[in-house]
Amino acid sequence: MATMPEDATRVYTSHEKPWLPVPMVPKGEAWIKVIIVDEERKCVVFKFRFSPDSELVPHTHECHAVAYTISGEWEYEGLTLPEGAVAYEPVHSTHTPSSKPGSELAVVLTSESDRFLINHMPDGTDIEFDLEFFKQMAAIETAEDLEKLVEQVQAQS
What we know:
four-stranded antiparallel beta sheet, Jelly Rolls, 43% strand, single chain
């Protein structure tokens, strides 16, 4: 008799995870909560919030990204993404996301390597967020700890 394969279905929730303020936001505020980091599949899932009148630094994807707008509206490069919209951002795409009314997103990043995002800072430096960064971020509970993690990544750049 053949045996059935183990069901690989998993359910993850973000209710117990804190919203952490994102450092390095040049205009307004943003928050993130990392839900899951799957090292085997090189996949990161997180929720993201923009405050009203916010803008992130430009960043380049070293991964595929799918972002679903849960509420509000956000935009980049002339594209407006209202509630219910799904954005696909390919590898090597560069953009500067912003939001006038504020918004909340669910984001899935998948990579063929350990590289995910390169943030292009106003001073000309680039700060990379790789799989290890997201893995460490998933374990963080406080804004202070996230700030320290980002400072460590900046020092390595």
